[in-house]
Each structure stands twice: as C-alpha cells, then as structure tokens.
Amino acid sequence: MNTTTAVTTPGDTAVRNVGNDRSEPALVPPVDVIEDSTGITLYADLPGVPRDRLNLRVEGDTLSLEGEMQLALPQGMTPSHAEVQLSRFRRTFTLSKELDPDKVSAELTHGVLRVRIPKAEHAQPRRVEVRVA
Could you give the domains of the chain? Predict the structure, then answer.
C-alpha cells in the first residue's frame, strides 16, 4: 500500500513520507521528526534490526530506510504465537530543498536509528550586520 502523509515540523515541512516503494510487504516503522534551527533529526524504531541488515540511502531528494529483523530464539524453541508476521521494515521520505542530502549522518543504538540531516547553507539562519550611518 502506498500512502502519502505529510510529516509536519516546526516552521516548514522538511520531510514528507512517500510510502513503500516496493511490492514486497513490509512494516512501516514509527518515526519521530525533530527540527531545530540547523536541521532535522529523525528517530526510527527498528527493533531487532542489526547494523548489517540495515540499508539507509539518499538518492537525490529521497531518503529511504530498509531493515530486516533478526531475532534469535533460544535453541530448541519455536514460537507458538507471533503477533508480527513480517520481518522487514521500510519507509521512504522526500527531503525538502532546505536540507543538505550530502551531509546525512546516522547511528543505530538499541534498535533506534537516529538520522541527522543538516539544513543547506542557504537555509541556515545567519546574522546580518547592521552598520551605523
């Protein structure tokens, strides 16, 4: 299912969710978007996704994240009930022109992916010197 949802942040909309871009079923991870004067930070919940099963890409103005859960069961045990049937997460965002896609950084800690996208230089607040005449 492809959905388009605006993710609003203080000021302008910096990131827009453009839904799943592949036909394979996947979970849509919950994401918090926080904007400050220098850029945005995305926090995506990806429980059970190890670093080697995470793919974060920036292509043009599109940010895509995809990950596959890898939950180990103790030896000899099989689940009798599983509420989550899918093991893949996927989410795609369109970045605003105010953001600098060349300076994206990311870190994965305890199942939470933190993605920092700074504002482009032209969108950064700047101090204007006032001269006295």
Answer: 5-71+86-122 (2.60.40.790)
**Whole-Å CA distances, 56 to 7, 52, 132:** 19, 11, 50
User: For residue 49, is pLDDT > 60?
Assistant: yes
Strand pairing class (105-109; 112-118): antiparallel
**Hey, what amino acid is at 126?**
R
Q: What does the alpha-carbon distance between residue 117 and residue 123 come to, in Å, rounded to a whole number?
A: 13
Q: What is the pLDDT of residues 96-128, one digit of tens each?
A: 999 999 999 999 999 999 999 999 888 777 788
Determine the Cα–Cα distance for residues 12 and 67; give it in Å rounded to an integer: 29
Tokens of 36: 């400050």
Question: What's the predicted TM-score (pTM) here?
Answer: 0.72
C-alpha–C-alpha distance, residues 92 and 101, integer Å: 14
